[in-house]
Design brief:
By secondary structure, this protein is an all-beta fold. 0% of the residues lie in helices and 52% in strands. Strands 2, 4, 5, 6, 9, 10 and 11 form a 7-stranded mixed sheet that branches. The chain has a 4-stranded antiparallel sheet with strand order 1-3-8-7, with no helix packed on it. The termini are far apart.
Length: 122
């Protein structure tokens, strides 16, 4: 069955960096676009970024553009979200998700991991 396991979250100060990883199994990873999404406390799921199957096309929500970088390694079945210059508003649980449809600024996914907590404090 599909399994997505995120790691790399933690607590950092404003301006700090974190690298989130997602290990995928149970499906042909290289055939699917992958999302990173987040959910702040008391808020809904928010689209953060998406990457195409080959890794050459990436898209970001405006507020993270230039600070976050999504990538993937199809040989290792992993996707990564490098987050730099973190802000307090980036505090959320971050999830990777297997796309059903590759959308920009919207979500249509078939599976999502358990998430990893990111806390950014000043």
């Amino acid at each position: 069955q599909v399994q997505l396991v995120e790691s790399g979250g933690g607590a950092v100060q404003t301006g700090g960096s974190l690298t989130l990883s997602c290990a995928a199994s149970g499906f042909t990873f290289s055939n699917y676009w992958m999302y990173w999404v987040r959910q702040g406390r008391g808020e809904g799921l928010e689209w953060v970024s998406v990457i195409n199957t080959g890794g050459g096309r990436t898209y970001y929500r405006e507020s993270v553009e230039g600070r976050f970088t999504i990538s993937r390694d199809n040989a290792k079945n992993t996707t990564t979200l490098q987050m730099n210059n973190l802000r307090s508003e980036d505090t959320a649980v971050y999830y990777c998700a297997k796309a059903r449809r590759p959308l920009i600024n919207a979500l249509d996914y078939s599976s999502r991991g358990q998430g990893t907590q990111v806390i950014v404090s000043s």
